[in-house]
Amino acid sequence: MQKLGNPVPFFFDGSGRPLTGGYVYVGVANADPQTNPIDLFWDLEGDDPAAQPLRTIGGFLVNGTQPASVFFDEDDYSMRVRDDNGVEVFYSPSVYGPTDAFQPASDTLTAIAALTTTAFGRNLLTLANSTALATATGIPTPLPAAGGTITGNITRQGAGVHTYHTDSALTSGRIFLTANGAADPTSLPGDIWLEKSA
Domain spanning 23-108 has what CATH number? Predict the structure, then answer.
C-alpha cells in the first residue's frame, strides 16, 4: 500500500493564504532562478516543456487552468516565488533532493505556523463551540446587540453614569443636562432632566 500525498505543489502568499496569480521561478542551484532557469516539463518523459515563470491559481501550480505537477532532471535547484504584485514571497538558492509537494518554509510562514503550535494554541483548536472558547480565553459575555436582559450593575470604565431604577416598570433611562430655559427633552419613562440654573 502507498500513502496518499498531494501530487501537485502548493504555494502560499506572504500572509499564509493560497497564492493566486503567483510567479514561480526554478533555476540553477546557487544562482538567480529568474536569470538562470532550468528546463521544466509538464510530463515525466520530458516531452511537454513548461515555460517559466510557472503560474499559480488557488495555491496550485497550473498548466493553463489545471493543477499540474512539474518535472526536471536536476538534484539541486534554486527557487523564487513572487505574488501577483511581483513581491517576493520566498527565495532559496538551494533546494536539494526530493521535496514534498509543498513550498519550502519561509521565515514569515514559519512565524505564522508557530502561532498555533503552542500547547495553548492547539488546545483552542479542539474546543467544541464559541461558549467553550469564551470560557477558555476569559472573553466576557457581550451585551446583546438586539436587546435582551442584563442582570446586575454595569460598571463604566472612565467617565459616565448609568441609571438604576427600583421600579421594574422602568426599563430604560436617559439623563439630559440642558441650559436654563431650554425645552423639556424627556419623552420616555425613566428619563431624567437636569436644567442649569440661571
Answer: 2.170.14.10
